[in-house]
Amino acid sequence: MSSEEPENIWKKSIDVIRRKGCGKGEPKTLLEKLRWVTLGYHYDWNSKTYSPDHFTPFPEELHSLSHKVAAACGFPGFNAEAGILNYYRSDSSLGIHIDESKLDHTRPLLSFSFGQTAVFLLCGTKREDRPTAMFMNSGDIMVMSGPSRLLYHAVPCIISAPAGNMLPPCLGQRLETEAQDDDIIQSVSEEDWDVCSWYMQTSRVNVTVRQVLASGQTFPSSQASHLSTDSCEKSEKGTPKNKKRKSKPGYELDT
Ligand SMILES: O=C(O)CCC(=O)C(=O)O
């Protein structure tokens, strides 16, 4: 996908999806090709840094939700500043990695999952530590804090629901609500919901939210001291690896 293509990805995709229904053998829409998106301070996969020069305002609703979830877990004042959305199709996986960085690790990492179920492997402080496997279902929130903040983890596979029962109940129907200006829940048109529900029947979306700067901290001015994080790899059967999301050799999972 060229860097120009992701512009208006929703609009470009929904018209095609509505017209042709994305049957087998049809060229994939941008929505189906989408693998990840960054929010707030955009993570640079090459330099493995965050920088103040590459920033877009963090979505307010997600900021507010993250603040509330963190506070409920004993982390008041959490300031959501960076996010990664991972879009998993039924054959996607995410390589083993650690979200290590020069960030303030006393701040938790929040992870929200929607759509199809994933197998999540939580390892130890070393890659070779024996992992604990768990299901991550739609609506699950994982908070990695304290010692678990720096544990290796991976998503080896997506478990698609059996045919006929493909959408988790909470996503099963369109939420009808009168949108208020300050409301966290906004209404969605029936047409848009049809596309969302079609997409979520075969996909998983995971959002991880991070605080980049500790309270009172600012970005150092020199490039050498950009805040950095480790990288990870997401792969899909039968397609080339996303080169921007690398993992160290020998630790790739299912491709
Ligand atoms: O998809 C998940 O549950 C994990 C995502 C993750 O580890 C990451 O984005 O760093």
What's the layout of helices and strands?
Blueprint: H1 9-20, H2 30-33, E1 36-40, E2 49-50, H3 60-72, E3 82-89, E4 92-97, E5 109-115, E6 117-122, E7 132-136, E8 141-144, E9 153-159, H4 190-200, E10 203-210, E11 227-228, E12 234-236
Antiparallel strand pairs: 1-3, 2-11, 3-10, 4-9, 4-12, 5-8, 5-10, 6-7, 6-9
Describe, in plain words, how this protein is organized in 3D.
InterPro entries: Alkb, AlkB-like, AlkB-like_sf, Oxoglu/Fe-dep_dioxygenase_dom. GO terms for molecular function: broad specificity oxidative DNA demethylase activity; ferrous iron binding; oxidative RNA demethylase activity. Its cofactor is Fe(2+). Keywords: Dioxygenase, Iron, Metal-binding, Oxidoreductase. Residues 219-230 have a biased composition (Polar residues). By secondary structure, the chain is an alpha+beta fold. The chain has helices at 9-20, 30-33, 60-72, 190-200; strands at 36-40, 49-50, 82-89, 92-97, 109-115, 117-122, 132-136, 141-144, 153-159, 203-210, 227-228, 234-236. It is globular. The chain has a five-stranded antiparallel β-sheet with strand order 1-3-10-5-8, covered by helices on one side. The chain is built from four helices and twelve strands, in the order ααββαβββββββαβββ. The chain folds into two domains: 1-34, no CATH class; 35-169 and 186-236, Sandwich (Jelly Rolls), CATH 2.60.120. The structure holds 2-oxoglutaric acid (AKG). Residues 84, 86, 94, 99, 111, 113, 118, 120, 136, 153, 155, 206, 208, 232 line the site of 2-oxoglutaric acid.
